[in-house]
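Ticket #379: bound-state structure for adenosine-5'-diphosphate.
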Amino acid sequence: MSRLALRDFRSYDTLDLDLDRGVTTFVAPNGWGKTNLVEAIGYLSRLQSHRVPHDLPLVRAGQEQAIVSARVHRGERHVTAEVTIKAKGANRARVNRTPVRVREILGLVPCVVFAPEDLDLVKGDPGERRGWLDSLLVARNPRFAGVLADTEKALRQRNALLKNLKNAPNPGLASTLDIWDRAYAEAAAALVVGRRRLLADLAPHIDTHFSALAADARESRRAASAQYRSRIDYTAVDLSADDAVLRTVDVIVDAVLSRRNKEIDRGLTLVGPQRDDVELLIGDVPAKGYASHGESWSLALALQLAGWDLLRADSGDPDDQPVLVLDDVFAELDSGRRARLAHMVTQAEQVLITAAVGSEIPADLVGRTVDLTAVASPR
Ligand SMILES: Nc1ncnc2c1ncn2[C@@H]1O[C@H](COP(=O)(O)OP(=O)(O)O)[C@@H](O)[C@H]1O
Ligand SMILES: [Mg+2]
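RESOLUTION: The complex was predicted; output attached.
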């Protein structure tokens, strides 16, 4: 990414930054807008904030829209990707000033953000882990944005029908439920297979990063792993087979059929990807509830770095690598993990780091330092 421009994004009225390869460290006191900056880059990458579920807070208070644009290399060319986030109404996007559908921005600005909130990937609810997995799925293959939307829609419609059946039993509606079972299973199966294949790709990278970051021999002897957990048993589906999605559709249809009465009683879909989880293990114990604070940090970082590895491998072009963003994380890490993380990220083509105080960053990593207080004012 060679240029980033913000207009009325969060606390920024105007920000224009030229960015270099290698490491750039942004230093500013807390509340100055470091995370806002990082969030803008993440938004362009995923069309979604890494800290809020809705877009409204992204638009500077009192303004009608925010604009985020970035210039990136794509092969031989420069591409400018721009998204306009509307406080009200539909967002818009342009590529090289030509209007495009917003989703076409996905994949143009690959980026991985690691932030203190990512500790929730280890310690938080299943929704955190699903969100991480789905967002990486979309980053690797924008087609999954449609799969996610289809799954949500089918789930909403199926739930509405189940609620009707709960309130007023109706044999006519029950046959409509067959149709919705199928529609739901088809959308959900594509998502589940995508997630399970992604986890299989991630697994070796998660363990490699975890053991590289682990503080001492005792920690590093234990392997980190991630397993897809669902109330539906998918173990019979061979993920490497071409018909994995079709087989998964059958498994989901069977699973909802066997719970039909229960689901009508509850007026709710009880099984499916919206309820699944990624179980993280260190050795053979679950990280959640058992891992030390340091281990939890290593594992959360390992998850994001594993995603970054896959995006890097997907790109294949050394001039066209995903940006790695480390938002205010060095202050949280002990000195061993700081040094090991610093060593690891020096391979990155472009790393953006934020810190309240420059001295938090290991000296061999700092790179170019940008004093944000000199380029943007606080609000
Ligand atoms: N939509 C918005 N409009 C104006 N200011 C905002 C908006 N959203 C957040 N802010 C301001 O941005 C600041 C927080 O910036 P942040 O990037 O989180 O700081 P930090 O440098 O600590 O990471 C707060 O002062 C907050 O009030
Ligand atoms: Mg911050």
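RESOLUTION NOTES: The chain has two domains: 1-110+324-379, 117-320.
TICKET STATUS: resolved
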